[in-house]
């Protein structure tokens, strides 16, 4: 007969392979305190979590963790997966509780851990908590990456916190992280909301050459949107007309933005001209019906 642990593992794996996630979780849960004596408990739990997430039944994984967490220590990768589940559900309290569990069980959080948490807090407007976590990870010697900085910048921009955004940008530069098109788009949105179009244009004009990247259609479209929102349609048209000289082709969103701006400003002639350009390049099918 197979040893108890081998039989236990085989049963759970068989249920997972057959798609019976609830059955697999039930068998794992029923082992209770015996899980502490099973060497393969962490890896088997990881398999359960992975299967639940892939089958869009992540809540099962969270419930299984809550019921069995006192009997074994799961891996850092599994902790990160569970934290991601909480963040996607918008349950930052649950995500923070998992971070505490990691610390109590001497599992060291990594860049993925902090990035997931920071992005979650920023997406929900809790910049203070996001910045606290950023400081904590830096004190622990973990260097933030571009994605993390951009998440914080985006959160600051949504709240129109210009001073804080610019400070984070300086921190980003000091950390040796180069801005990207996403960074520039975020800054353009911020300056547009603050009514400072000159600052928005300055970023678009200087960052690409300074940091070595080419502005994409999303950036130009954001700049056009900022101009239109601030009643500066001629500047938006100028941005649109400058795109070819920057080696950038307008996309459907670009045309959509310009057409909407023209109609809002009652510039029918410009709207008709833009529509002709859309038809000429075959992009009409991608536009929304209420504009066309």
The share of residues in helices is over 70%
Structural class: mainly alpha
Q: Roughly how many Å apart are the termini?
A: 72 Å
Helix and strand string, N-terminal first? HHHHHHHHHHHHHHHH
How many E strands? Answer: 0
Average of per-residue pLDDT values: 91
Shape: elongated
In terms of DSSP E residues, the strand content is under 5%
Low-pLDDT ranges: none
Specify the number of helices. Answer: 16
What is the alpha-carbon Rg in Å? 25 Å
Largest sheet: none
Describe this structure as you would to a colleague:
This protein has 16 helices and no strands. The protein is mainly alpha-helical and 292 residues long. Helix 5 (76-88) packs parallel to helix 7. The N and C termini lie far apart (72 Å). 38% of the residues are buried.
Summarize this entry quickly.
With 292 residues, this protein is an all-alpha fold. Helices cover 70% and strands 0% of the residues.
Which SSEs are present, and which pair or pack?
Layout: H1 4-17, H2 21-30, H3 41-54, H4 58-68, H5 76-88, H6 92-104, H7 111-123, H8 127-139, H9 146-158, H10 162-174, H11 181-193, H12 197-211, H13 217-229, H14 233-242, H15 252-264, H16 268-281
Helix pairs in contact: 1-2, 1-3, 2-3, 2-4, 3-4, 3-5, 5-6, 5-7, 6-7, 7-8, 7-9, 9-10, 9-11, 11-12, 11-13, 12-13, 13-14, 13-15, 14-15, 15-16
